[in-house]
Design a protein that fits this description.
- It is built from 20 helices and 2 strands.
- With 391 residues, the chain is an all-alpha fold.
- Helix 6 packs antiparallel against helix 7 and helix 16 packs across helix 19.
- It is globular, with a radius of gyration of 21 Å.
- The protein starts with a helix and ends in a 6-residue tail after the last helix.
């Protein structure tokens, strides 16, 4: 019951906050046309305005396009991996709006994320500490994204399940979940490394046992298979994959992401983290804004949390989290918003919250941490709805 209660509280809290924020600055045509209060008829339109429309910001619009019109090689949609919108399409075919379909998928998978994260935390922690780990995860500032029409809820569910099955030595189930995660977001491929480590540990770190368990090792292939399926679809159906090998950037964007990615973010590339940090610092000094301050502050916070929790983390957790951090800090998105999406990307390193719960033991400190996290999360939700911060 604990995960469900926390999820219900968060769903109500975020919905009310988003609706109230949108009433101060309505942005969509529906928000401008229909007032939040008092309730009006038709009721369905009013409910959509209050509970759905405030969430339709930034990438949510791209997912709406995919659900409504499908993928195209020319409009930027091919950058987004398919599992999340695919789950919403059947609901849309039943007559629901694409926005409602996407929110339903995020909400339902969000409940499952909470439940299995709690189960995963209980493998390493007693129940009270596992509950605190869940609260850290649920109230973390970027956690608002679990309630928006974004792919993070689906991805985190699959990533958590991958780790859960790994620790229970259900290798093939872990591989299936990891493959589905790779169909949801590019970061899913990072689950390959912790899975390989857990298999190596299970073999006693010896080559002899490794050979005996070679059938288990075949399950590793399921994770890249998820990405491969998407690449094949892009190549054959969309004609979007035109592999180039002259430079690292050309290979990444022609093959692994999409040549049309610039339609979504005009300037983006993967560079050394210190170069991205230098460019971000220059932006902070010369043209500071809310967006850059939020990204930098939360980026620094996540690095601190990783350092605090590092010694308490399983090696497989470290390997996964380190990959997430390195790639997130290497993703440079131009001079205006140099670290676009940084907090949301770092949030995918969910094992941090499990290990952090083992470090913070004093009750009043736990209470203060959760309270400050909740305040920061609500602030991010407000600036997200106002479109002054890109998550």
């Amino acid at each position: 019951m604990t995960p469900l209660i926390i999820w219900l509280f968060m769903r109500i809290l975020t919905s009310i906050t988003a609706a109230m924020t949108s009433s101060f600055k309505p942005l969509t045509p529906l928000e401008k046309m229909v007032a939040m209060l008092p309730p009006s008829v038709p009721v369905s339109q009013w409910l959509e305005r209050v509970f759905v429309s405030p969430w339709i910001r930034w990438d949510a619009l791209w997912y709406q396009t995919i659900v409504t019109h499908g993928y195209s090689a020319t409009d930027g949609t091919a950058q987004f991996h398919p599992l999340y919108p695919l789950l919403a399409i059947p609901l849309a075919r039943l007559g629901l709006l694409s926005s409602i379909s996407l929110l339903l998928v995020s909400s339902l998978t969000g409940i499952a994320v909470y439940y299995f994260f709690f189960k995963l935390a209980q493998i390493d922690l007693p129940r009270n500490d596992a509950t605190f780990a869940l609260m850290l995860f649920a109230f973390a500032p970027p956690a608002l994204i679990l309630f928006a029409p974004y792919s993070e809820a689906v991805f985190l569910l699959l990533a958590v399940l991958t780790m859960f099955f790994l620790l229970n030595k259900s290798w093939w189930l872990a591989g299936i979940m990891g493959g589905l995660a790779a169909l949801t977001r590019q970061q899913g491929i990072f689950l390959l490394v912790p899975m390989a480590w857990e298999l190596w540990e299970n073999a006693g770190r010896t080559a002899a046992n490794l050979r005996k368990q070679r059938r288990d090792w075949l399950s590793l292939l399921l994770i890249p298979s998820g990405l491969l399926l998407w690449l094949i679809y892009r190549a054959i159906i969309l004609n979007d994959l035109q592999a180039g090998y002259k430079t690292f950037q050309q290979f990444i964007y022609s093959t692994l992401i999409s040549p049309s990615a610039s339609k979504v973010v005009p300037e983006q590339q993967f560079i050394w983290p210190w170069l991205a940090l230098k460019a971000t610092y220059q932006k902070l000094v010369t043209q500071p804004d809310i967006d850059i301050w939020v990204d930098i502050c939360l980026g620094v916070l996540f690095v601190i949390l990783l350092g605090i929790s590092w010694t308490r983390m399983r090696i497989s957790y470290r390997l996964y989290s380190l990959q997430i951090f390195l790639v997130s800090f290497s993703y440079y998105t131009g001079t205006i918003h140099p670290y676009m999406g940084l907090p949301r990307h770092l949030y995918l390193a969910f094992p941090i919250f499990i290990s952090l719960a083992a470090v913070i033991k004093i009750p009043w400190i736990r209470l203060v941490v959760i309270a400050l996290s909740a305040i920061a999360m609500l602030f991010l939700l407000v600036v997200y709805v106002l479109q002054t911060w890109i998550p």
